[in-house]
What does this fold into?
Amino acid sequence: MKKIIMPKLPGSMIVMLFLLTSVASGLERGSILYHSSKEDKIYGRDAELILPDSIGQIAFREMKSGHVGLYIGVENGKHKIIHAILAGVEETESSNFITQKDVDEGCKFIGAKVPANYASWTQEQKDQLILVAKEQVGARYDVQFRHQKGPYDDKFTCVGLIEYIYEQAGYNITPDGYYSGGAGGITYIQTYNSESTFWRDWFGENTFSQTVEFSKFEHPLASALNVGLIHDGGRYMFFPYTQYLQTTTTPIATDIPVSGGSGKDNDDDKGGCFIATAAYGSYLHPHVRILRALRDRFLLTNKPGRLFVEAYYHYSPPLADFISRHDALKAAVRVILLPLLGLSLLMLWMGPVFILAMSAFMVLLFGALRLRKAAAA
It folds into this structure.
């Protein structure tokens, strides 16, 4: 039997072949990725259409609205996506689409979709789509859901970002419009009862649109914190599952890693905020996460702030331990923390310069009123 001798390949060619076989994918660039939220829930698909009481819960994805990202292809041997998370619009590895923390909380991949006519798109059109997506990297997350689709003030939500990218490429995934009830969606009355309503029942009419972009909602803190896109006096939100339902897109098989990454949005820090953790019973509580975000963004970035945090870490654990053993005290601390939480949210949304400017204005206004009163006397 004749022995077959395989030709030797240069080392660089072997490496190239390995990379090609290890990262090659049948998934189209421009594919839209979707995943559910905690406990595999997503607002609009599941029977339990519940929005959270707390705006902090909304800011930290507690409303189980799911998530959307855009697959942009292979770069430097790695599958990449672009998506909008709380830290802003980022380009990252596809495995960070569903972080390990999300996996642990029960988030699951729903699927990928492309435009129904994507087979007819030219390579130039697809390149332009990816270019538009890359131009949005670094834009801020629209925490207040005031615009959602940008590009006003360069703020996006996850689904708003994808909708905007495709619209700029000349393709409208979800028809424009505002759903406030009736045919084409779901309408229900939700009862809110928490610190945001001072533990009294507050009834809001909420909706989920199946046919157009924006769904009307009512929340006890929506006006106070100016949350939602305002249209004809109502407040509206664009939910990911509304986009997923559209027949303008069609499912496509996914053969890339979409979960298990660490990601910027993964919060592994279980330390700090001892008193708040004791009051709320968990370091994962949305209000505790707000305080940790304030610590990370504004206190740990300067020497005075770090000294304060160090002193807090030293002296607060015994007090936190005492609080954790008394339910009445935990409830009292939660009430006491409300003003701090409100200030923290304002600083995270608007920055310390704005807060300082507003404080200075209030001091000057108060001083002017005192002087005027003294002069009148």
